[in-house]
Please model this.
Amino acid sequence: MSDQSFLGQVHRAFDAAATFTNHPQALLNQIKECNAVYRVTFPILRDDGTIKTIVGWRAEHSHHKLPTKGGIRYAINVNEDEVMALASLMTYKCAVVDVPFGGAKGGIKINRKDFSEHELERITRRYTFELWKKNFIGPGVDVPAPDYGTSSKEMAWIADTYAQLAVGDLNALACVTAKPIAQGGIRGRTEATGRGIYFGIREACDNAQDMKAIGLTRGLEGKRCIVQGLGNVGYHAAKFIVEGGGVLVAVAEYDGALHNEKGLDLDAVMAYRKDTGGLKGFPGATYLVESRAALELPCDILVPAALEGQITAANAPRIQAKLVAEGANGPTTFEADGILHQRGVMVLADMFLNAGGVTVSYFEWLKNLSHVRFGRMEKRFEETAFTNVLRAMEDLTGKTLGEERMSKLSHGADEADLVNPGLEDTMISAWHQVRETWTRHDRKMDIRTAAFISAINKVAVSYQDLGIFP
Model:
């Protein structure tokens, strides 16, 4: 493993943060290293009758808490180093936001565009079988989720396959998260990562002292934002940022980028992209052939929400954003992080900022284990109680609220009403924990290092509670 590999980058960041802790080296080594990696190859029958050999991986980085948790990505550039790096980041991410999972990650080395829907289903189901055979999947063992190239559809196939294999397991649906609602999913999971990114950015921008230090005013209102990646994460991050008062001045995708200093209509961009298959030719905006060039455009907030390694030592000196909000996993290399920090750019690290997905996945896992929808038992009681209080107020004041206003004020919490505030509270609490570590060290480190310190300390406590380490 070289220092320039993705896993090497994660380890360098870990080692830098570890110097600020007092934990024994043996404990730090245990926290850093990946506990288990499973490489699998299997044949599938293609629609034309030929046989294709598929390669995949599943890495479980840390078993300090079970189950382990992490997505499965379908991409032609997936490799063991990447899967192990992403599993490591999942451990630290879960620790930062106080979600009681160890980290894991999976990947299958394919370009999904080269396969039909039926072939993708066969690949997904066979991969699930291989994981089950080696005890790398289960509600209390390892719980996958979507990632780049996968969606709720693949998660439904995984859940169905596991249920057929684990006959009699009452909690079988909890073997995977981000499922369709009808298959045990939870409302709010699809947009959770993007919504969490928005909550994190909004909270960071709400501190006048921090914003003044990077040359910005307090609040998100009017700030120029660039989003790289218009997949599920990037789209929802952009959507909530715009709804929160930000101005979307550029978007970047694999086929190019669009720029308009006065702002882009996100819905119009998405509709055009769906109709034409790309961004080129979108009216009222400048088209950039080189997608990464958008990262260097003038803006206040840059949200890289595509793949890892997008901001490097080569382009970091040209980044004009005052705040980089990492929507993707590992979009900034170790060297680039140092350059941005030296230039006074605030980087909201991925292990904090994009934890919205795993947070709401945790809620879905709890829902599957409890076998009851959030809000189902208390919603009607709350509405009745609120209505009685409001009626009493009407009687006392002699004024009538009206049915529409009465209905809004007496509304009892349903699933989405509980999930979204739960996510919001998690992101706010996590940011203030990371910021406390950052300020306690006089801001001499970057925010990523502060997040790593917070994660290392929390994981260390779990291992120390086991009595293995002092």
About this structure: The CA atoms of residues 220 and 281 lie 30 Å apart. The chain has a mean pLDDT of 92. DSSP finds 16 helices and twelve strands in the chain. Residues 36-183 form a domain with the Rossmann fold fold (CATH 3.40.50.10860).
